[in-house]
Design goal:
Structural class: alpha+beta
Oligomer: single chain
Number of domains: 3
CATH architecture of the largest domain: Alpha-Beta Complex
Number of strands: 7
Length: 215
């Protein structure tokens, strides 16, 4: 997109900029919104940094992209500190510079750091994604991202949880699990520990969801 402006607009724009050396920030000294400079030309409002990028790059800016700061200073309009990038790149920049809330500080998270540790521990012990999703009342997608280390990566750089190989239960074990549960001797938790499998597996066995043909 090309912006419409005249020399008078351009002169007015730079009159509102505190210019320093080529490598330093050029701070906008007029009106701002959330730290970003605001400028209008020909009845159209612009972000000052976006206008600066446009006039310094042959009067062209891609409307599908953002104008990002390499200096992490929203007030800066130095063209040497500006580049175009995606929203994803902008978020990653914020994370890299510790400006994006992570962990329990983020309003997007429904689990605490202790719960994240517990999720990874239970998963490594053989608990299924579905069982963890039900237990912690969050979606399976979020559980997957936690156990694979795609989210909550800030917590000391922990590696993704390594899952133990799932035990293959044999027919005599299935019968014994149901027998012990039916007579009330063992709880599902005790059975999961006794037979080295997840509580979700035990639940599905005793409720005849799996191994229906085993009597």
């Amino acid at each position: 997109m090309r912006y419409e402006y005249g020399q008078e607009d351009l002169d007015r724009f730079w009159s509102k900029v505190d210019k320093n050396s080529e490598n330093e920030c050029w701070n906008w000294v007029a009106g701002k919104s959330k730290g970003y400079g605001m400028f209008s030309a020909k009845g159209v409002n612009f972000g000052a940094h976006r206008f600066s990028y446009c006039v310094s790059n042959n009067n062209y800016v891609d409307n599908n992209l953002l104008v990002l700061h390499s200096c992490d200073n929203p007030s800066c309009v130095n063209p040497n500190h500006l580049r175009q990038g995606t929203a994803k790149e902008n978020i990653q920049d914020a994370i890299d510079r510790n400006r994006f809330p992570t962990g329990e500080k983020s309003n997007l998270n429904k689990v605490s750091e202790l719960e994240v540790e517990e999720i990874r521990k239970l998963y490594s012990q053989g608990e299924t994604l579905l069982a963890l999703s039900r237990k912690f009342k969050i979606g399976r997608t979020q559980i997957t991202r936690i156990v694979e280390g795609k989210s909550w990566r800030h917590d000391g750089g922990k590696a993704p949880a390594k899952r133990k190989s799932r035990k293959v239960l044999k027919e005599p074990e299935i019968k014994e699990i149901r027998r012990l549960y039916d007579i009330g001797i063992k709880s599902q938790l005790m059975l999961s520990k006794m037979f080295s499998c997840s509580r979700e597996t035990i639940r599905r066995i005793v409720n005849r969801i799996r191994w229906k043909d085993v009597q």
